Amino acid sequence: MTVVQARGLTRNYSFGREVVHALCGVSFDVPAGDWVAIVGPSGCGKSTLLNLLGAIDRPTEGSVVINGTDVARMTDREATSFRLHNIGFVFQRFYLMPTLSARENVELPMAEAGVSKVDRNARAKELLTYVGLGHRERHRPSELSGGEQQRVAIARALSNRPAILLADEPTGELDARTGAEIIALFGQLNRDGTTIIVVTHDEELASAAKRKIHMRDGLIVDGDR
Amino acid sequence: MPVTLAWASLRRHGTRTLLAMLGVAVAAAMLLDMVMMSTGMRESFRKLLLSRGFQIRLAPKGTLPFDTDATIENASRIVRILRSNPDLAAISPVLGGTIHIPRGDRVITSSALGLDPRVQGDYELVSGKDPLAPNEIAGNADFIRATGARLGDTLTVASGYDPQTREFSGARTLVLTGRVRFLYGAAHQRAAAMQLATLQKMSGPERADDASLFMIRVRDGVNVDTAFNWIRGRVPVVNIISTKSALDQVDERLRYFRQLAVILGSVSLFVGFLLVTTLVTVSVNERIGEIAVMRAIGISRAHVVQQIVLEGVAISLAGAFAGLLLGLITGRYLNGILSSFPGLPEAIDFFLFQPKSAWTALGLLALSGIAAGVYPAFRASSLPIATTLRQEAIA
Fold first, then answer.
1. A209 assigned to some structural domain
2. CB B114 within 8 Å of CB B200
3. B295, A47: Cβ pair inside 8 Å?
4. Which of A48, A92, A100 has its CB closest to that of B393?
5. CATH code for the domain in which residue A155 is found
């Protein structure tokens, strides 16, 4: 079953009279349970592609269908709700709420989705245990290492059981050993059925993925199906 | 959830939040004081005028009560005319004057009111009894303190005194029967009350039938305006003042006070608004990346707006509550200073606390808190998620 279907994705940015073509008609599919690494030099359009897949940006042309829904044609409100229930985001800089505990950070998307306090509490504990931080649920981000913060961010991304997990340079701020732990966690997640699309410069992370998509100058040059 | 996030955001920079709240508190205190001042004096004066139930006052033509030394002649005739109207329940003629009391080698000077103690509306008896007999006098605390007399003591009281020859005129021997508090007396002003006839006789033949003021209480159920018009037709030689017209005159005299209060109150409100807007805007700018991530993970625009507006309202309201307390303290302090102004009744409050004033100040601050959150909330909720995340990543 195809979870993500991108067709003819084009994204242009205008800077005064100049138009930058960040993506130039990208098409590819991602089946359920796949783990795709999007790689390529800086400025090739990787992050732009991830933003379009995650419905936080709109394509100039083309479509992105996730679980049968074209996210490119959604209103802002629809896209927000869609992201909440169907897409998990992991960012390079973690972006946890500094005054909330690890558990409260994981509960945040569930609270937005209207999950009861009891249920989201149980789910947050379950996820933190899954990422190896069951014993640190009350700790604030400032009391956690970079790797631990990223694990909390991954738990947060999984809280509403999304169809896909999108990660933008998830090991970019971590040392090699901690980065390897996160890669192992992604592997575990994928084995447990999570569909993952990750943008990275990290060769080890890219190599751990089931499939690589190479991009250059806004185009996929290798690896598309 | 917006409440949790707003609270978390405010706690994040606790000292900064506290300082902003203190700033708002100062602005709120100023605002409350100005609201209290703009309405308090009028209300306080109204309560004072109606404190003994007299709704109409007659003063010499062209003056306000005790504004000048002018008096109304033929007071007994006017009393007779007024008593012919059954709608008038009580008539209290009052003569004002100055008395001198020799005590050893000193001469104590005091203001004095001649009145009918049974129907008077000028003082409250604190201890002892009213000066019901022609040879009795009652004094306020300052009078008793200055004379060093005790209740029951006999005092020599004169209406005239020549300091060159040290001669007294119109002297009488009066017994101090009571300690009273004058409702319209200025702070630290010595004052005494005695029978109207006693003061008239002491003041000499030219004031033997004079009064400075008539206070009139209208019978229950009778329209005050009807009584007012009846008196105007029968006693044209006086200035007739109803409570309403007195308040109108007070309003006129206090107009500049109120304008000042409105201007200063508006400035306070605006300063509080700017303070909160600045703080919330700075706070939003600092966590623009976090907000973009919140939007990316599915937090709705509405909840982002609610969170940020809540931050502004929380700072404004917390500051407002602290400011109400501060405003009451400063209001009381300033009231103490202003109430000791010479010539003003001590009982007049410049800063009269009324629940309405507090609600008005709180309401204005809550509105300014909402308004203060609008711009940063709009900015935060409308930021382009992808572009912001990209800029944050580059930064």
1. yes
2. yes
3. no
4. A92
5. 3.40.50.300
Q: Report yes or no on A15 lying in a domain.
A: no
A56: amino acid identity, one letter: I
- In this complex, do B298 and A160 lie within 8 Å of one another by their Cβ atoms? yes
Among the residues of chain B, which ranges form H helices? 2-12, 14-50, 75-83, 141-147, 196-202, 224-234, 243-253, 255-286, 288-296, 301-339, 355-381, 385-394
On the 0-12 / 13-18 / 19+ scale of CB atoms within 10 A, B7 is middle
To the nearest 10 degrees (0 to 180), the angle between helices B14-50 and B2-12 is: 100
In a domain, A9, yes or no: no
pLDDT score, position B354: 80
Please answer yes or no on whether A93 and B297 come within 8 Å at the CB atom.
no
Distance CA B26, CA B24 (A): 5
B-chain residue closest to A59, CA distance: B386
Q: What is the interface pTM, i.e. ipTM, of the complex?
A: 0.91
**How many other CB atoms are found less than 10 A from the CB of residue B5?**
26
pLDDT of residue B95: 94
Question: Any idea which of A11-20, A135-144, B140-149 has the lowest mean pLDDT?
Answer: A11-20
Range of the domain at A141: 32-57+74-213
pLDDT at position A36 = 95
Q: Which of A20, A84, A97 to mutate to test the interface with B (most CBs of B within 10 A)?
A: A97
Give domain status of residue A5, yes or no. no
Mean pLDDT of chain B: 87
Q: Which of A83, A89, A111 is the closest to B1 by Cβ? A: A111
Which comes out higher in pLDDT, residue B190 or B349?
Answer: B190
> Is A120 within 8 Å of chain B by CB?
no
User: Which token pair is A143?
Assistant: 């009391």
Contacts of B386 in chain A (CB under 8 A): 48, 51, 56-57
Question: Which residues of chain A lie closer than 8 angstroms to B394, CB-CB?
Answer: none
pLDDT in tens, A15-34: 888 888 989 999 999 999 99
Q: Which residues contact B25 (CB under 8 A, 6 or more apart)?
A: B319, B320, B322, B323, B326
Given its phi and psi angles, is residue B170 left (phi above 0), alpha (psi -120 to 50 degrees) or beta? left
Question: To the nearest whole angstrom, how far is the Cα of B325 from the nearest Cα of chain A?
Answer: 30
pLDDT of amino acid A224:
55
Q: Does A130 touch chain B (CB under 8 A)?
A: no
Q: Is the pLDDT of residue A84 over 60?
A: yes
- B11 chain-A contacts, CB cut-off 8 A: 99
Residue A25, classed as helix, strand or coil, is strand
Q: Are A61 and B254 in contact (CB under 8 A)?
A: no
Do B297 and A76 count as a contact with CB atoms less than 8 A apart? no
Residues A36-43, mean pLDDT to the nearest whole number:
92
Are residue B39 and residue B71 in the same domain, yes or no?
A: no
Indicate whether B128 and B201 sit together in one domain.
Answer: yes
Same domain, yes or no: B259 and B316: yes
Cα B333 to Cα B350: distance, rounded to the nearest angstrom: 11
Using the beta-carbon criterion (under 8 Å), do B298 and A157 form an inter-chain contact? Answer: no
B11:A156 CB<8 A: no
Contact B389 A83 (CB under 8 A): no
CB pair distance less than 8 Å for A97 and B290: yes
